[in-house]
């Protein structure tokens, strides 16, 4: 049974996701450390409680959407955290949609499966955790078009599908615990590097006298074509409706891209895999953040290579 849903972390993403669950008819109990955010829900009669433990006490399933690994760990295992109830846990399913490191996610999943939950029919069962990070950004969260990449037990994934479709339009089952977050950080690593490649090449082309629009046309009908060239072009004025054409406002911030690259780098180092492009991409995004671009869309990295007139 998944009627009573707890939701923790009502920020840029979580606010919309929780609202979409409410609109789909689920009965929510919410929590955030930011009281003004909580009030946006309690003012509408939604149950807003003080601690993650109180969320757990009144929910069949709990969803977390928090900034980083340390926040997720403290919400689960801190004082009055979700797992405070130990063997008397009420929820049988925990879904973490935050982008965190696979190691933390797998550790939590093991902790959780060691707790016993007592089902109403009297059969003791272990609760389950799914890692289910998302792509689609704040606009996708608002429009209910997110994609969920899900790791954990397949039965739990199938049971949770209606929840995912109340918040998004696509789900991909990735296998074992932690595989959802692994997929997410690999996707963002590939996206960061392709954006850098397209930006560097478009800047070089302009330096050599070819306009960015001519070069983009060539890329898009040749082997360099990719999402960064044909759907999210980083050069202002080439495409309408993308962040580069509104001074890089909105979209996916450089700060979040740097965070995801840090997770990719740490994961690569953990398994002793070489990651020169991850390291260089991270350096460039950190530099962009320190130059004042931290809240700008990550395609602003074009400015790392080119500061002249565009096109
Ligand atoms: P956010 O910072 O806007 O929201 C996080 C919320 O968690 C805030 O409201 C904060 O007050 C709350 N919070 C922090 N610590 C807490 C605690 N201990 N207990 C309860 N609440 C707490 O972040 P966001 O942009 O919504 O992103 C959330 C996650 O989703 C991140 O892991 C991010 O990497 C990932 N993500 C974000 C985007 C995006 O475009 N914003 C896209 C895909 C994935």
From TrEMBL:
**What does the record give as its pathway?**
Amino-acid degradation; L-valine degradation
Reactions catalysed, semicolon-separated, are: 3-hydroxy-2-methylpropanoate + NAD(+) = 2-methyl-3-oxopropanoate + NADH + H(+)
Alphabetically ordered keywords of this record: Branched-chain amino acid catabolism, NAD, Oxidoreductase
For this protein, the Enzyme Commission number is 1.1.1.31
Q: Does the keyword Heme apply?
A: no
3-hydroxyisobutyrate dehydrogenase-like NAD-binding domain: residues covered: 178-304
Q: What NCBIfam families does this protein's entry cite?
A: HIBADH
The family assignment reads:
Belongs to the HIBADH-related family. 3-hydroxyisobutyrate dehydrogenase subfamily.
Identification of the protein by name:
3-hydroxyisobutyrate dehydrogenase
Specify the species: Platanthera guangdongensis
The organism's taxonomy opens as: Eukaryota, Viridiplantae, Streptophyta, Embryophyta, Tracheophyta
């Amino acid at each position: 049974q998944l009627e009573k849903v707890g939701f923790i972390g009502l920020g840029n993403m979580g606010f919309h996701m929780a609202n979409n669950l409410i609109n789909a008819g689920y009965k929510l109990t919410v929590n955030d450390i930011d009281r003004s955010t909580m009030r946006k829900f309690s003012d509408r009669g939604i149950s807003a409680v003080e601690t993650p433990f109180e969320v757990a006490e009144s929910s069949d399933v709990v969803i977390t959407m928090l900034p980083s690994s340390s926040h997720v760990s403290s919400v689960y295992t801190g004082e009055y955290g979700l797992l405070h109830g130990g063997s008397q846990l009420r929820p049988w399913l925990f879904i973490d949609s935050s982008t965190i490191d696979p190691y933390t996610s797998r550790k939590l999943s093991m902790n959780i499966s060691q707790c016993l939950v007592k089902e109403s029919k009297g059969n003791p069962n272990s609760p389950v955790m799914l890692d289910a990070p998302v792509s689609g950004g704040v606009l996708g969260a608002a429009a209910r078009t997110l994609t969920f990449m899900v790791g954990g037990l397949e039965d739990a994934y199938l049971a949770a599908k209606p929840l995912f479709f109340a918040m998004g339009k696509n789900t991909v089952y990735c296998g074992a615990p932690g595989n959802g977050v692994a997929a997410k950080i690999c996707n963002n690593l590939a996206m960061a590097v392709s954006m850098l490649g397209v930006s560097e090449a478009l800047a070089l082309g302009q330096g050599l006298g070819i306009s960015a629009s001519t070069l983009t046309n060539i890329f898009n009908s040749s082997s360099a074509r990719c999402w960064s060239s044909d759907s999210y072009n980083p050069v202002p004025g080439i495409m309408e409706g993308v962040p580069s054409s509104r001074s890089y406002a909105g979209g996916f911030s450089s700060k979040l891209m740097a965070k995801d690259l840090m997770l990719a780098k740490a994961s690569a180092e953990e398994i002793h895999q070489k990651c020169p492009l991850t390291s260089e991409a991270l350096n460039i995004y950190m530099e962009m953040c320190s130059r004042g671009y931290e809240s700008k869309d990550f395609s602003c990295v074009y400015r790392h290579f080119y500061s002249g007139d565009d096109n």
